[in-house]
Specification:
MFS_Na/Anion_cotransporter, Growth Hormone, Chain: A, 21 helices, transmembrane transporter activity, about 80% helix, membrane, transmembrane helix
């Protein structure tokens, strides 16, 4: 009677080993080769440049648009912040769809839509009846729609790196891709300033829209979607991640009761508030407080430094990881620069009275915040490696909400008090509070 049982056990064991071997082969086939990884990294880097250039173009053009449409500070803050009304809506959805159906498909579909909105942004204010209220409403609607569509981009990129890049290289790869966010702001500041000066604010959006279409065409022609053999839904679920993340349910009770999860959320909340205020109000600050300064200098230099620092911190994080340092140590150590030094720099603006000193402080703030791409922003892949895209979407939702709150509140503060020092002091303390929370409760280890 025992013989058939042993035979069944052996058969089950062999079947299990065969299945495991198949899963490993399917999973390893999804890892990019070094050449493919380098190519896709630079493609997504270029995409980050265009995404952020189109996002920050409004801040660059705002002084010119103010002259044309007469928007006050509160309305200016509203126009810049409304992008972030739509941005949180699709973070979780974008991450889930990328994990489930493939990151590149989501990036391409959303990209066509937000690029079209960017291209036609100069048209929207003139489609109204001519009143200030109507033109403002149309611009707000277009910006919010752009935010909805761009909300899918970075959760999808995070999902792609979690799927196709080996664990020891993910921080470096994503940091270099994310350096494109600073490169996008740099691109807008440099080339956008030139276009703005010679051709007007509308041409800035037209130029970025055309670039967006070119990038989408290149990604479609040379990316994974077209050049790799299509796979079935069943195979896709298991091949997107070695641990079959799309079919593995997320244990919400463990997630919601884990301190590292809330530390990540609160830190990203604080960074979302402080970073977007820093990003959107910088051109207006120099335009009002140092009107004789060259726009291309303060619109370029901080973001050039930030882009370089993001890449360097990414390489350092990978280096320390290969030396055997824990992810928790790396995330917390680098966050000292990303949020503590960044917050202290914003506080010190109150003590600066010269253009050169103020520009230096902004450069220090931008350089230190470049480290953020190697800290909290990578935490979803640390604490929930099987649900990276989805968890990033959850985190980024909480990062976008304070972004529009902070941008609008800052505009209200300036409208009521005209006190830039007060506005930046509030922003600096928010960043420091976020650093303290992550320093105490944050972790780089899986929570389930």
């Amino acid at each position: 009677m025992s013989m058939p049982s042993n035979g069944l056990d052996q058969q089950k064991s062999m079947t299990s080993k065969e299945c495991s071997s198949k899963d490993i082969k399917i999973a390893s086939s999804q890892i990019w080769s070094p050449e493919r990884q380098a190519f896709m990294m630079w493609m997504y880097f270029a995409g980050s440049i265009i995404v952020y250039a189109s996002r920050t173009a409004m801040a660059l053009c705002m002084p010119e648009m103010y002259d044309e449409f007469g928007w006050d500070k509160r309305q200016q803050g509203l126009v810049m912040a409304c992008f972030l009304w739509g941005y949180p809506i699709t973070q979780i959805l974008g991450g889930y769809m990328a994990d489930r159906f493939g990151a590149e498909r989501v990036i391409l579909c959303a990209g066509v839509c937000w690029t079209t909105i960017t291209l036609f942004t100069p048209v929207f204010p003139y489609l109204s009846d001519g009143s200030q209220k109507s033109s403002l409403s149309l611009v707000i609607f277009s910006r919010m729609s752009q935010g909805v569509l761009q909300g899918m981009h970075y959760p999808s990129v995070m999902s792609a790196t979690g799927t196709h890049v080996v664990e020891t290289e993910r921080t470096q790869v994503y940091s270099l891709i994310s350096a494109g966010t600073h490169g996008g702001t740099l691109f807008t500041g440099l080339f956008g300033s030139i276009i703005l000066h010679h051709f007007g604010w509308g041409s800035v959006f037209n130029f970025l829209g055309v670039l967006g279409y070119i990038w989408i065409a290149l990604l479609y022609a040379h990316g994974d979607t077209k050049n790799h053999k299509p796979i079935s839904v069943k195979e896709n679920i298991s091949s997107e991640n070695p641990s079959k993340k799309a079919s593995k349910p997320l244990p919400w009770r463990k997630v919601l009761t884990a301190s590292p999860f809330w530390a990540m959320i609160l830190a990203h909340f604080a960074n979302g508030y402080s970073y977007f205020v820093f990003l959107f109000w910088l051109p207006s600050y120099f335009h009002e407080n140092h009107p004789h300064s060259q726009p291309w200098v303060y619109n370029v230099l901080p973001w050039l430094i930030s882009m370089v620092s993001a890449g360097l911190f990414g390489k350092l994080a990978t280096y320390f990881l290969k030396l055997g340092y824990s992810k928790t140590f790396i995330r917390k150590s680098f966050n000292v620069f990303a949020m503590l030094v960044f917050g202290m720099a914003l506080l010190s603006i109150s003590y600066s009275h010269s253009y050169q000193t103020t520009l230096f402080i902004f450069c220090v703030a931008a350089a230190s915040n470049g480290a953020y791409q190697s800290t909290v922003i990578m935490n979803p892949s640390d604490i929930a490696p099987d649900h990276t895209g989805f968890m990033f979407g959850v985190m980024n939702t909480f990062g976008a909400i304070p972004g529009f709150i902070g941008t609008y509140v800052s505009g209200a503060i300036l409208e009521m008090t005209s006190n830039w020092n007060l506005m930046y002091s509030v922003t600096g303390w928010v960043s420091i509070a976020g650093w303290a929370v992550f320093a105490y409760w944050g972790s780089g280890e899986p929570i389930f």
